[in-house]
Amino acid sequence: MSDLSLTPIAIIHTPYKEKFSVPRQANLVQDGTGIVELLAPYNVAEAVRGLEQFSHLWLIFQFDQIPTGKWQPTVRPPRLGGNQRVGVFASRATHRPNPLGLSKVELKKVECSQGKVLLHLGSVDLVDGTPIFDIKPYLAYADSEPSAQSGFAQDKPSSHLKVGFSPKAQSAVKKIEEFLPHFQRFICEVLQQDPRPAYQQGKISARVYGVHLYEFNVRFQFVDTENIQVIDIEEI
Known about the structure:
By secondary structure, the chain is mainly β. The protein folds into two domains: 10-143, YaeB-like (Elongation Factor Tu (Ef-tu), domain 3, Beta Barrel); 162-235, YaeB-like fold (2-Layer Sandwich), CATH 3.30.2310.10. It is built from three helices and twelve strands, in the order ββββββββαβααβββ. The protein has helices spanning 140-143, 167-176, 183-192, and strands at 10-13, 33-38, 56-62, 74-75, 86-87, 100-113, 116-123, 131-137, 162-165, 209-213, 216-222, 227-235. Strands 1-2-7-6-3-8 form a six-stranded antiparallel β-barrel.
């Protein structure tokens, strides 16, 4: 069996500039939208003819920020608190024998203009600049299984955390929302998912964290197990 060499057909533009800020599934942060930009020679209108008839897509992508060759047969899924191990193939862990991921996303619009082919998407779970290897339409009759069993991840995770803003952070948000509407809501959606590693969740420390969203570093701290305080928002 020969090795397979893959060439990206596109990249995705998202507000998530680092792994730490990315939601664990695409539908958890509604304001975290993305745009797929096809690369030459695939950036031709003929390649996406008819795609606008589909409401959702499958994206096959590369975990390009994961060190290659570092995988283990078992992993600790966040949904199990990072304390229990399951087989790597019983998880969606990023550290895999082949660094490939699969994501179902909503297609909002297909744009073909000035030599560019852009796919405007709804909520995404990919880091900005992630290479895309293939795009396939989502077929409801074949892909949807309403009664499917999803093991330890049967239900959507709850977002019980409350997010507050310091006066300094609130002032920064007000200025940013003049050109980036709903930025405060977006921050809340991201932080309510608790982006920390699973083994840190539910614990309190004096540590100040930062997430890189768009061109801003959002610095925050846990007040207690239920409340987060956004301390400051700095332009990067």
